[in-house]
């Protein structure tokens, strides 16, 4: 089933044309990447999906229905600074559930069994600054996935990490994704990351962005 569909989506900021008719789709349970140069308009696509910006033209459908206003079906994980420094890891991870209206107690009960899988067991009462960059991003991902939205939006989730940590996080995410089958859309400018993690990849042109290519992974052999 098609979960997300963008058709000929256009967006400009003043005179700056950013999206020049972007069309793409994500099926249920698929991991799709949007690969493109920096400044192409990738984050703009995500801001349209979360409802932070409105498209100038084209159509966006989620589960067959047009996307309107604030979109609460998307769980968004930013590149960095997702965690609040003054809250413990546990209180950071439960935050999204509490915002949805769950009590802190219920949120803790839901999150606690998952801490080990995310490599955070024993670090519940630490503060973000006490953890490594990789651990902080795993905490940010846990906070995002426990919200059980229709779709996971990952904006360069490992882009701020050193190369070695990034590789280990990619391996870990691949294992996690195979286990949980989140429907995910990843933004990256890292070709290897896109190939390693995705079922399909859309390659965007430089701004104004259009889809230049669509690849299935594993890539067909010549
Ligand atoms: P990417 O995520 O691919 O690096 P972005 O979507 O962040 O690219 O930005 C694409 C282009 O749109 C950039 O040139 C950026 O300067 C411009 N842009 C993004 N948001 C705004 C805005 N609110 N006002 C004006 N220009 C913007
Ligand atoms: P990653 O960021 O991929 O977890 P690191 O090399 O930074 O990789 O951390 C490896 C392990 O070291 C962590 O999984 C954790 O068990 C431990 N660790 C990292 N930071 C701390 C810390 N501040 N205090 C105690 N243990 C830590």
TrEMBL record:
Domain of life: Bacteria
Keywords noted in UniProt: ATP-binding, Nucleotide-binding, Transport
Occurrences of domain ABC transporter (ranges): 4-222
TM helices/strands, residue ranges: none
One GO MF term attached to the UniProt entry: ATP binding
InterPro entries in UniProt: AAA+_ATPase, ABC_transporter-like_ATP-bd, ABC_transporter-like_CS, ABC_transporter_ATP-bind, P-loop_NTPase
Family: Belongs to the ABC transporter superfamily.
Protein name: ABC transporter
